Amino acid sequence: MQITIFLFAGIAETLGQRDLHLDLPEGSTVQELTQQLAMQYPQITEALQRSVVACNEEYASPTQRLQPGDEVAIIPPVSGGQEEGERGTSTCFITRDPLCPESLMKQVSNPRAGAILTFAGTVREFTGDQQTIFLEYDAYIPMALRQMELIRNEIKHRWPEVETAIAHRIGRLEIGEISVLIAVASPHRAISFAAGEYAIERLKETVPIWKKEVWKDGSTWKGPQTEHWNPQGDESRCR
């Protein structure tokens, strides 16, 4: 059977392509797929060991069996298929255009809100002694939007009175530009702070968006994880 595989961030850059097709025996598992990839492309073996796999836009376990025609994505550790323009809804979207806090606040504003919190992640110039020239963001857009909506649903389940909106940039961002924006409205400020922190931590854990740091003398794709990560883990640890 033939499986379509989508590649992102450093893996796509290393292989010089964003998708490939792999022929596997019927009934092969996700683990067998990654093993075959490592055999055919040994230069990405280390990256594969730190990545997880999504099947048809949902995270998959190593033992999940693949079906003919499945679309698989190799998801490296996240930062936090590009397409032009904006994708998503007014309360959950990915865009190449600059993000506006006031516009996102309007999406969550309502008569019950006594507090509206906004969080803006911006591009900083220095990480330690390393000077950044600009950042480049990549995303598996369909799955990223799905995961962002799941975060909004998790927040609504925990705090029914909260309204949340999430937006993220892709493409090239200069120093000082906003890369991610979250707006949270609730009756009281304490809930807004809790829900806002929950949103950004879950986004960094589960949403397939990556950043490339570009310096004067080089560049690297980065995510917060240095070991194998588990985006399917229990979200209760984010409380």
From TrEMBL:
It catalyses: 2 [molybdopterin-synthase sulfur-carrier protein]-C-terminal-Gly-aminoethanethioate + cyclic pyranopterin phosphate + H2O = molybdopterin + 2 [molybdopterin-synthase sulfur-carrier protein]-C-terminal Gly-Gly + 2 H(+). The keyword Transferase applies. It comes from the Bacteria. It is an enzyme of class 2 (transferase). Keywords: Molybdenum cofactor biosynthesis, Nucleotide-binding, Transferase. Pathway: Cofactor biosynthesis; molybdopterin biosynthesis. It holds the Pfam family MoaE. InterPro entries: Beta-grasp_dom_sf, MoaE_sf, Mopterin_biosynth_MoaE, Mopterin_synth/thiamin_S_b, ThiS/MoaD-like. One of its GO terms (biological process) is Mo-molybdopterin cofactor biosynthetic process. GO terms for molecular function: molybdopterin synthase activity; nucleotide binding. Its EC number is 2.8.1.12. Residues 219-239 are annotated as: Disordered. PANTHER family: MOLYBDOPTERIN SYNTHASE RELATED. Involved in sulfur transfer in the conversion of molybdopterin precursor Z to molybdopterin. Heterotetramer of 2 MoaD subunits and 2 MoaE subunits. Also stable as homodimer. The enzyme changes between these two forms during catalysis. Belongs to the MoaE family. Belongs to the MoaD family. This is Molybdopterin synthase catalytic subunit. The lineage of its organism: Bacteria, Bacillati, Bacillota, Bacilli, Bacillales.
